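Encode chain A's predicted structure.
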Amino acid sequence: MDRPERMQTFRKVFKAFESRDFRRVWFGACTSSIGTWMQIVAQGWLIYRLSHSATLLALDQFLGGLPIFLFTLIGGVVADRAQRQRVLLVSQYVQMADAVLLTILVATGRVQVWEILCLSFVSGLAQAFGGPAYQALVPTLVDREDIPNAIALNSIQFNLAVTIGPALAGQALAHLGETWCFGLNALSFLGPVVALSGVSTVFLPSSAPTSILHSLKEGLSFVRRQSAMGALVALAFAMTFLSMPLRTYLPVYVKDIFHRGPETYGFLLAMMGVGSICGSLIVAALGNIHRRGRTALLMLIFLGLAIAGFALARRPHLSGFMLLLVGTFMMAAFANVTSVVQMTTTDEMRGRVMSIYNFAFRGGAPMGNLATGWLVPMLGAPLVLAGNGAALVLVAVYFLLAQRKVSAL
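Encoded structure for chain A:
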């Protein structure tokens, strides 16, 4: 491939970066996500160090996701009734305050597990309103034909953070302590605050909005009218219900199966992040492909097999390779499904539609963690996660062969 062809390929992969507002939001979100993943790693490690309880690890994830499950539909209505940048800014300020308070508690040596759990709930509440606003804002920053590319690039920034954040957290935990992870996360929220303050694209809501309940009913009616949207929402819930608990139980594998420390924990998370970046780059390079839904279902089958492979592995490096595959197939599936949802909605309904999708997508994780938190103490993490992988394969096969509305998209 000569240089002009390489440049053309490069421009195709990063097409959405031609939008100034998208670039600003992308880099701001990436900065914040790196800090967030440093806190996620440190927080899981801290809870397990204080309690040595797999159940409390799952409860922390459940409480962090519960507000998203409960309030994200209202967050979608707000995203269609207010300036989305302002909603996002308030969300960032709340999460910054949450991180500052946790930093102080850890630094003074007074932190208790129940305080961490409460702060996870508060952070999740802020994300319940910020998430729909962010998902509704991103497609408005680029041309319509560039929406799939923007979604894939947005996945890349998230997964760059998943790669960099855990690696930094592993080193910080080993050499500086947990306080630094939480403090750096608090500072990282300055990135999206600065970026959002300079965005020129402004969403102007209706001057005469209806009631919140009526707006929510409009969003639900829109989803019902779309022939495949209900199936996509159900698929989103199944994906996160069965795949997300894997990340929750990585500390159990590191400490109880591999008998290693925080560096191994960071390595495993980083490998999963590298895979996610690869998956996102593949989706970005493909652009508007034909039958994106069928591609997503095939990726889900491979994802289930990779999760089962990780669950049964007993060596850190083999587990790292399996997590590389998990990240690749997970992001390829998620990005394709999200693109289908975004392309089938309108801007005035986008906040509500994405909140309904987010309700299922994000709600599946706490429900999955709650279920596995009950099963793991009885059956062990390897058996439960292997079962999740097998179940995910069955779900994908069902949608591929029996529920053809998704595979036809």
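The mean pLDDT is 81.
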